[in-house]
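Sorry to interrupt, but I need a hand with the structure work. Could you write out one complete protein record for me, on any chain you like? Just paste the record in under my message, thanks.

. . .
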Amino acid sequence: MTADAEVLHGPREWPEYHAGYYGVFLHDLDGHNVEAVHHGQ
């Protein structure tokens, strides 16, 4: 988030996907949409 990527949806739990789904959605400097996710419990 400090590399000037555009944050589309900040890091948070997304219970609408499933319990323990924690993720962030970014638009990177090369124009790609990126999702970083942790599937916790």
The chain has a mean pLDDT of 91.
